[in-house]
Amino acid sequence: MNAIPSAKLYSPALLGLATGLAAFPLSGDFPLTAEARSRSCGSVIVLGLALADDGTVARIGMRVSACAIGQASAAVLAQGIRGTSPARVRATTEGISDWLAGEDALPDWPGIEALTAARAHPGRHGALLLPWKAASEALSSGAASR
To answer: Is 1 a residue whose pLDDT tops 50?
Structure first.
């Protein structure tokens, strides 16, 4: 009986997303950085961002040590963040948190529907939110406030 919820949670699409993180390596040249840790599961993400002249996100890099849910969530973030305003990233982070709490609909973000099965698994909520919190924190520092 436990295999059914697990199979739904760890779908081939979700696991495929997790493998896509190699396209977003973290280097030392990102002006905005943040690290986030999940107390509940021990996941860690270090994230770097660079903004374009218009204030939108130009580049992202990550080092992720998390379960497949955290990795897939990081990949969804990374694949859709280019050209996005800091305000939209923060609003999406809040929207995901509200959605996980059952208070709102899933926010509009490219590919985010791949994470819907995680809502039924509260033990994975922290990992799912981790990359979004790190991005919001990085964008709240320094040059991102413009």
So the answer is: no
